[in-house]
## 1
Amino acid sequence: MKSFFLKLTATIFLLALSGCATSSPEDFHVEKLSLVKVSTDTKKEIDYGRYVDVDGSFYRLRLELTSSTDLVDLAGDYSLRYTSYLCDRPDYKVLIGSNALYSDGENVQGLGLSKRYGSTEIPERIFLKEPKYKIIQSAYKVEKRQSIEKSLNSDGTDKRHAYNMYLGLYSPAVASWRKNSEGSYQNEFEAYDLKTQPEDVCIVIEGHAKLGGGFKSNVVKVDRQLFKDVLNGVE
């Protein structure tokens, strides 16, 4: 009986511990948006209407964010993901981004799990590196320099952490997407085109624990003008 209560107490403690949300990161800022060309041999990509080059490479938007939050530390305890949607149409289902977040070319989730449990315990697929890319052109937020200056330590070093993610430029109607995805389990996403019709895109980074609890970041808004700037003059 004593053993039973000890196990019960331990279970309740673990549930309570895992259910408690960590303090939510509230200072994610957009620093840079780049139009990049990604080689097809670096990442298996479903063709659901992407902008492609004659050599088969496809185009993506590479978004760089900074925060005082160390997501690598949090990734050892939480499953990280981000949701992206059109700010003015939050209920309009669109497939703009994946769940992959990168830091210095490495998957943040893989870095966090490896740091906590060791690389031999983590499935290899978690360690997918950032795809190889070539920057076509970039656009910066106006307050980029101000945000960096405010975050400097007394010795002049930058204490903010940098992360990046990839956003799609375009997606067709669901019928075309399903046809090319070779699966019927996909969610029904609507069409959009950020090149011909730029819109504000909102992003929220989330962390989820297996037994409940987690966190959400502040809403990161990528202004439509930034999309216009980075795609200016691009055919």
Note: The longest helix spans residues 2-19.
## 2
Amino acid sequence: MTVTRFADYKDKYKHLKLDRDEDGILLVTIHTDGAEVYWGTDVHDNLSSVWGDIGKDPENKAVILTGGGETFIDREVPIPDKGWVTPEIWIKLHADAKRLVLDHLEIEVPMIAAINGPARVHSEQALLCDISIASEDTVFGDHPHFSVGVVPGDGMQVIWPTVIGLNRARYMLLTGTEIDAQKALEWGAVNEVVPKDQVVTRAYELARQIVKQPQLTLRSTRMLMLAELKKVMLQGVSHGMMTEGLVAIGTGWQPTKVEESA
């Protein structure tokens, strides 16, 4: 396996702040100009690429994922005019979407989501982590898909039924219903709800507890626990993105314009 070192990718990504401590705990903060992230293709590309770098770095012992500012991922770049997408463009989006999810699941060390606020865009990035800690003001939703005429085929249709059950997930995705932190805790989407200023601190507490185990134990346990999810996610995202693209091209409507990454 190709090995990467932290110095190789620490400052590589415009929308990701990467900090690793002496215990090998890597904090990944998604941001736009140091504040709340505005999701777009440049952020998408950063995140889908960094998972590969992190996964190939043997010095990483655990990963914490959080958002900049007051939200996890809750805003998008302005929606473009209709009709810009082509099959050639969607093939690229299809590949990027698979990396965003599947490379996340290829990371062989435990991952903790420190959900520091509303997560109405790409909440699967938090839910794919092994442990999820949410702030009291966290709200989950799925704004970029069905409510604006787009098929939720990028993994949302897999992860939400997995964590809260099929009927609850279908209702959420079809009606645009949002789930607050306490409901997410009750339904099993998150493991703990804490005050906003304690989310990352609590994630570090858990990470330091976890990394006391031998690396062989850490990596083997993570891989074992994810084996079944990886199977269904591989099939679900590949088929789902093709379905989403077919409908997007057919209706001339898509939520995010493809641009060259910054």
Note: The longest helix spans residues 215-251.
## 3
Amino acid sequence: MTPKFILTLKCLYKAELKNKHAKEQLCHEIEIQKELRHPNVLPLYGFFHDENRVLLMSELAPKGGIFKCLTELGHFSEEQGSQYISQVVDALQYLHSKHVIHHGIKPENLLLGLDGEVKIGDFGCSVQANSNCRMTFCGTLDYIAPEMVAGEPCMEKVDHWALGVLVYEFLVGNVPFKANSPIATYQQILLMDLELPSHISPEACDFIELLLCREPERRPLLSDAASHPWIMGDRFSPELKCDLLHLGPL
């Protein structure tokens, strides 16, 4: 029978999954991702295994990863950045409605679909918001929220913090908190040692500062983030407006 669509396979070697935690994490990742269906979330269709490997079957993201695009360009324009971020916000709203905390929002985990739409992938650090896994120290150092660094209870607002870091990296080309050692980076995060370059618009600065708030409860709801002037402002070129219409609702 002729295949109807192309899949991508993520290959994991069983030799690297020998310890109990790695096996449990993989099972947890599969259990979470296989239930998710959203235009901006990379779907997992299933998995199979042989003697040496476990292979996860996902939707193909033919335009590759956002990290590669960001590396090639240095940074995104505010128009392009806000277009991408609006889709990430929409996907996070969906994930949180399903009680899923992603714990891994960063350029490396964002892919681009056939029409250039954002697809959040890699649910290896994701947890259910009602599980005791929410205290697990997980994620990339540069994107870790201060409550995680401080060993405080962590809920879905860690994704809001990571979203703020993501916006900064999109517009500047590097992360806001980065020092010569992990300990120094932790200190920057806890002290909120944040500087916003002058080339970033006031709307973008406000958006970043709202998300990068030390107190999780003061970070904006994702519904408020989605309607922020930096996301909704009439700042798009005619070409990008056409692109947004082509992508459909964000």
Note: The mean pLDDT is 86.
